[in-house]
């Protein structure tokens, strides 16, 4: 049984940890749009109340116009908070589902996090963004948008970067400390150093910093298809809280 209060809280901190440039409400449907970045999390409808199911077709049509203005496809992020009637409507209209993802959480008071604080956050945002783009093999043209998103994060952030003298950046992690919770964002390890303990070392360093800042729990989001990452997180003590996926109209 999914704990809806926990879902609501993690959804709220997730929105703060990865802020969209435009935020609109239609009832309890949160519409997030970001013209400068194509991230699904930044460009989706996020229903927040399972009972808010009035005028579904009309509201989706209205939202579609807003998405078109931002040159984005109409997308609903389906979570345990999505009204069953909306899910039934999308099913009936043949909407496509993709990017099935898990939200995981762990208690920072339990378990070991390695020894010492051998890696501290860096202050150079540009260097962090360059490393994230290089490791993720993303388009360098996304640098301004990614920089703007991270700059807009209001809670305290820790930018973690692992580097190798010969091959350059090897791993990055963005930790967002929000009251007693810490979100692990933008976690990425270079293919050339995977399965060598780099990911676990980065995760431990990120969690140690979060715990020292006062966080009691850590959370993260990971696609269900990323089996290697899920195995790493579960080994580190993370457990599943809920799942979500994105849905778009049939073309």
UniProtKB/TrEMBL annotation:
UniProt keywords, alphabetically: Acyltransferase, Transferase
Q: Could you give a GO molecular-function term held by this entry?
A: acyltransferase activity, transferring groups other than amino-acyl groups
Entries under SUPFAM superfamilies matching the protein:
Acyl-CoA N-acyltransferases (Nat)
N-acetyltransferase domain location = 115-251
Entries under Pfam families matching the protein = Rv0428c_C
Output the superkingdom of the source species. Bacteria
Q: Per its UniProt record, what CDD domains does this chain match?
A: NAT_SF
Gene3D superfamilies xref list: 3.40.630.30
Keyword Transcription tagged: no
Spell out the PANTHER family in the cross-references: ACETYLTRANSFERASE, N-ACETYLTRANSFERASE DOMAIN-CONTAINING PROTEIN
Q: Tell me the protein's name.
A: Acetyltransferase
Q: Which organism is it from?
A: Sinorhizobium fredii (strain NBRC 101917 / NGR234)
Its organism's taxonomic lineage begins at:
Bacteria, Pseudomonadati, Pseudomonadota, Alphaproteobacteria, Hyphomicrobiales
């Amino acid at each position: 049984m999914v704990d809806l209060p926990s879902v609501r809280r993690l959804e709220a901190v997730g929105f703060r940890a990865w802020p969209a440039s435009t935020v609109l409400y239609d009832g309890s449907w949160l519409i997030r749009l970001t013209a400068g970045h194509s991230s699904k999390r930044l460009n989706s409808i996020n229903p927040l109340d399972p009972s808010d199911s009035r005028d579904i077709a009309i509201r989706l049509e209205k939202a579609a116009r807003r998405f078109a203005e931002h040159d984005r496809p109409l997308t609903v992020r389906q979570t345990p908070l999505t009204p069953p009637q909306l899910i039934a409507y999308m099913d009936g209209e043949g909407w496509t589902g993709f990017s099935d993802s898990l939200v995981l959480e762990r208690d920072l008071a339990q378990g070991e996090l390695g020894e010492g604080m051998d890696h501290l956050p860096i202050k150079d945002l540009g260097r962090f963004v360059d490393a994230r783009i290089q490791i993720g093999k993303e388009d360098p043209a996304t640098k301004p948008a990614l920089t703007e998103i991270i700059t807009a994060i209001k809670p305290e952030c820790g930018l973690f970067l692992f580097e190798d003298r010969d091959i350059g950046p090897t791993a990055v992690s963005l930790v967002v400390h929000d009251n007693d919770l810490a979100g692990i964002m933008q976690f990425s390890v270079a293919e050339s150093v995977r399965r060598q303990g780099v990911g676990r070392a980065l995760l431990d360093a990120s969690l140690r910093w979060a715990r020292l800042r006062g966080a009691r729990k850590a959370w993260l989001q990971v696609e269900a298809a990323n089996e290697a990452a899920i195995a790493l997180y579960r080994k580190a003590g993370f457990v599943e809280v809920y799942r979500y996926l994105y849905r778009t109209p049939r073309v």
